[in-house]
Amino acid sequence: MSAEPLVSVIVNNYNYDRFVGEAIESALRQSYANTEVIVVDDGSTDDSREVIRSFGNRITAVLKDNGGQGSAYNAGFAVSNGDYVCFLDADDILLAGAMSDAVAAFREPETVKVEWKLWVIDECGRESGFAIPEKPLPQDLQERTLRDGPFYDWLVTPPSSGNCFSRQMLQQVLPMTEPEFRHGADVCLTMLAPVYGKVFRLPQPQGSYRQHGANNYFGRQLDESRLRDYVQRFESCCLVLSNHLQSLGIHADVTPWRQRNFNYLWPRRLLQAKQDLAAIVPTGESYILIDDNEWGIGEHVTGRHAIPFLERDGAYAGPPTDDEQAIRELERMRQTGASVLAIWWTAFWWLDQYPAFARYLRERFDCALDAEHLIAFDLRCPLPVECLEVSTSWARQA
Fold this sequence. Notes:
The strands form 4 sheets. The protein has a 7-stranded mixed beta sheet with strand order 3-2-1-4-9-6-10, with helices on both faces. It has a 5-stranded mixed beta sheet with strand order 13-12-16-18-17, sandwiched between helices. The protein folds into 2 domains: 7-215, Alpha-Beta Complex (Spore Coat Polysaccharide Biosynthesis Protein SpsA, Chain A); 279-397, no CATH class. The chain is α/β, with parallel strands linked by helices and 398 residues long. The protein contains 14 helices and 18 strands. The chain starts with 6 loop residues before the first strand and ends with a helix. Helices cover 36% and strands 21% of the residues. Mean pLDDT is 93; it is low at 390-398.
């Protein structure tokens, strides 16, 4: 490795002519002088290639047929020379000091990946004021990977543009298999990094993640097709991870990974929850959904309308301040026609946080489902309030 390491910023683009120029400019503006910029266009059909050509010999352009994100990563890495490599999505932006800070962090022995948070901006570049990922970097990534299998979580791990990898690591994992990682190539690299060394997170955000209507994940509806894609991605990651572990002489058993890995349990349980709600909630009726807004936008069950809890003007308004507010809002929604209240698996904590509300549900309404993934109450035939022993001022007044 040279005294002043070379950094490769590889911009991967597909039909983002309105964003790719800004991404390239941010890569060219790096304060770290020894940076090469490679732009891979993955068969765009818009004006992306005209934008890319306008940068002339300031960049290395790779113009290829469409093959997906994994294919773009492989093509970009094949022509790169950097000791460290950052894959920048064409709709995102790097801050000027990103590569300088990353190179400095790589001086820590055995580090194979340096990551950072990204400020969230909208389609026009306006800042939202918050950054992703929201949660801190776990310190037991390698142990967790060996025990539970592929670790990737958008609340914990940054998307593609928030990572820089050592060439030494990438040479052991690329080229990746392309059909399996047509989308989510960054997931493949993220879950393999702890196997090959240490992961370090910079203390401050070093770029911006652009949230807009064409994102593959943020804002995209959690329909059955997407959930099945998530399940298949986990299976693909398991195969890749187990192969790498075995090549390193480490035994890998995929079966327990499926039993406890959140990336597998979450989409499988959500698929089951949707099927159960279709059976419990009559067609054309509404149901109250307690999911901490985790299910995202859109109608989750065909022909049934989901009402977030709490709700203001049709949107999620956060959890209630206390049991009294929860009961009051439940009754308001029930009076307007909600026939079922459903509590999603990861929101079961509500039943502990709001014990009077939980007793109110169990004592006044029939439990239509009590499973590991979903608890549902039928709101249509409640017991009279005077039959209850719920000690809230609201219940006493009623």
